Structures are given as structure tokens and as C-alpha cells.
Amino acid sequence: MAEIPDGLLYSEEHEWVRGDVSPGATVTVGITEYAAEALGDVVYVEPPSVGDEVRAGDVCGELESTKAVSELYSPVTGTVTEVNGQLENAPDMVNSDAYGDGWIFKVELSEGNEDLLDADAYGEKTE
Amino acid sequence: MSTAETPALRSPLHEEHVSLGATMTEFAGWDMPLRYSGDVAEHTAVRTAAGLYDLSHMGELMVTGPDAAAALDYALVGHMSRMRLWAAKYTMMCDANGGIVDDLVVYRRDWDHFMVVANASNRIEVARELAARFDAGGFDAAVSDETAALALIAVQGPAAAAIVGSLCAAGEAEPAGLKYYSAANLLLEGGHHAFVARTGYTGEDGFELFVGADVAADVWRSALAAGASHGLIPCGLASRDSLRLEAGMPLYGHELSADTTPFDAGLGRVVAFEGPAVVLSSSQPGAAAPGAGLSDQVDPRAVSVERGAFVGREALARVADQAPGKVLVGLVGDGRRSPRAGYAVTDEDGRQVGIVTSGIPSPTLGQPIAMAYVPPTLAEVGTEVGIDVRGRREPMRVVALPFYKRQA
Fold first, then answer.
1. Nearest to B336 among A40, A44, A95 (CB)
2. What's the rounded Cα separation, in Å, for the pair B33 and B18?
3. Stated pTM of the model
4. Residue B141 and residue A109: Cα distance in Å, rounded?
5. Cβ within 8 Å, pair A65-B39
6. Taking CB atoms and an 8 Å limit, are B38 and A95 in contact across chains?
């Protein structure tokens, strides 16, 4: 079973969010272990660029495995402040450490997001 | 995400996959392993050591009867009656328009007994077509779908011969002595009988073991145990697809379809228009049939006749000497974003001129690779084309197939 840690928030599109989701705060975003397992070995991550304005629910990048390609959705609205450059050479960290070193980008929120799920609610979605 | 009303078919090895923790997927109506550990690890194991596959979804159609060889000569585009005993042959069934109904591997198990291995997605249609064509041609031959009674277990990779050898009972012929695309009945440790063929779909050396469904789990576990010290791991259909694509092998529904002739796919060599056929004379039944073994002698009851009519012959003869309207090519890109099946091949002005049939980031090459149909003017090796990869044009160039060839 894929791990779904408490203390993170989750989107319907299988992204996780770490941090306070109120305007002005900066959060870290990645994809869940469930999504990583479904995708298979990730061989390429195309994150958004630093400075991009992203909107909750919109496509902002893509992830590619040998088997499939998946769009990356932003779970929050704001400005991208940082992307995980380690994924350039080690995209498989998305599989091996989805909630840690496999983080994808950080966003400074311009608005809050009330629609994200807690671990229990997200867990129900993946059953 | 199956919405089909009929439940997915299960391999005799289903419980083995569940206990190994496989990620399962619905494939052509079957619930089959997609992966166990990881796609790239499984792909690499087959290239460098060995992988174990459950291919029990493939269709096994037994064709028997005095006219079996002549019946297949008529029903398929290849010249089955010329096959030696225990040989395997890659061939196709085409429709009257020359369109491909399925690509097949046919094994000659006896002079009057062939096993036709069909893709899971086409099994029922191929069985029905074979029976209809035998009937239409007035042949004394029968088709029996044995898929449910058999399991197909493949051991693929450079260590395959050693592993399959260790599965065989003491004193049995060494599988390593089998030629590529030939087969034998072998007795395995534990007393299980297996029809073992040196065939595969990965671009590596390998064997396919057809065994009874009732002993499949035993053979599977033996192979896992015997292969462990050789680096063998269980592998799923995801790695089978990436391996076959690197090896430039076509997949029905992607490179091959009813809208495609063997000539379009660059496989015109499978169509035999001419040549003497050696068929059993049905007027002399009952001669002693050769027993199991690696024999390739000609049956004493055989008579020689010229290659005659076969379904699709006229249509295929018309296109055989024409310049094809489309050509199947290999493409390699230097970027990282990979084309996928269905993406448009574009010219310099961004107009669609072709279509990608399969595409992946190649685990062995570390670059995106694809097969695509393009106009003959863009088919020369070295030609630069563009692929519309999810809204952005990615440059790729035509290369000779296969992308990967094992060292001899």
C-alpha cells in the first residue's frame, strides 16, 4: 500500500502540499506515492519554471515514465519560487522518496485553497 | 479501470502474481502483471541477466488433421507446409484486402499438428477465421483453442539458456542446443512436460515454455528459484513493451492493423507467393509419425505441390511491387520528452505527415525512441522530422531498425 502521511494536504490530481496554505505562505509540492506507483519509474520531470504563475487545478508540467506520461497539476495558486533541480539527474527520487527528496516545486501562495484533502479523505479517494 | 461487464480472464499464475505483490493491469480482457519491482529494473534484468514472464494471455490454437499444413498455407500468408518438424515461424493472417488480421508465431509440433500462437486481443477472431477458412477451402483440419488449458512462461535474457537448462530433468536434451526459432518437448524436474521454444519478444536470447495450467505454478516457482542466482527477476508487461520496441518488433494494434499490409510494415518477407510446398498426402494415412525430438527429416508421406491460393493473395500481389504509400521507420530524439502512440509526425511547416505508432524513453539508450509511419520521401535514414509532443515540436531523426541489437 502506498503511504499517505498525516500532516500533508492532497489534491484530487494526486499532488501533495506541505506547509500552511494561506496567502503569502510558501508551500512545497510533490506527487503522492500512489501516483508515483501508478506511473512507474519516472525517467523525466518537467517542472514549472521559477517565476511562473500557477493556478490550482491547472497543468504546470509533466512527468514521464517508460510506460506513460502524466500531467503535473498545481494544487495551489501563486508564484513558483523554487524547483527541485536534483530531479534533472535523478528523476527516480519521485518514486523512491515521493514525500522527501522527490519534491518537485515550491509556491508562494497568492490565495488560499480550501479544496485540498487531508490524509484520510485522500486515502478514501485512492481505495 | 475496467468497465467491461465480463470479468477479466485470469492466468493460471494469478495467485503467484498476487503473492509477489505485482501491480496488475487489464490487458486484452486479461488481468495480467504490469510490473513487480519497477519497469526499468525489469527491463535491465532482461538485457543483462534474465526476466521471467507470464504470457498466459497469448492464444494457443491447435490445428490438427491430415490437411493441417495445406489448410494453414491457405489461411495464412506464409508457407507453413515447408516448415520443418519442431520449427517455429513468424507469420501473419491477412484479410482479402491484404490487411493484417494478426501476426502469429506458428510451431510445427508434428506433421499434422501445428500450434498457432495469436495475440490475446485477436485470439477469438483468429480461431474463428481459421475454422471458416478451413471450411471454405474444403480442408480436413480442425482448430482447437487450448488457451485456457495452457500456461505460457517465458525466460528471456542472456542467462536464459542456463536457467532453462537447470529446469530440465537429468538426462534431458540441453535447451542450449536448440536453434533460434525451434522447439522441443522436454521433461522438466518434477516430471512436468513442457513444449519449449527458443523464441521471444525482447531482442534477447530466450525461451518460451508452454505447460499445462495445472502445473504452471510449480514451473513458475522452480524458474524463480533456479534463476535467482543468475539475476532473474519476475517481469511484467510494461518491460515487455519497452524491450520489444527497442528491438524494433511490431505490436498488433500499434504498428500492425487491418489498415496495414505486411508490406507497409516492412514485413513483406512473411508473404510467400511462390515455391514448392511439401504437404502430407492424405491418401496415405497411418504411417508411423516421428516421435519427440529435434528431428527435421521429411515425412515419408509427404508430396510436393506448388504454392497455391491463400486469403489475401490477389490484394497482396498488387501491392507487393508498388512503392508503398507509407513506410514504418525508427525515430530517435536527443531531447528528453518522448513521443507516444498517436502523436503526429510533422514536416518543417508543422503539417502532419505521419503518425507515431509506439514511443518510449528508451531505458537502454537513454533517449526517446519511436516507431512511426511516414511518407516514403521522409523514410531515409538520417532524415529530420518533428513530432508534436504534447503541443511542442520535438526534433527526431530517422534511424535504421532495430534500435537495439544484442551482441552475437
1. A44
2. 9
3. 0.90
4. 73
5. yes
6. yes
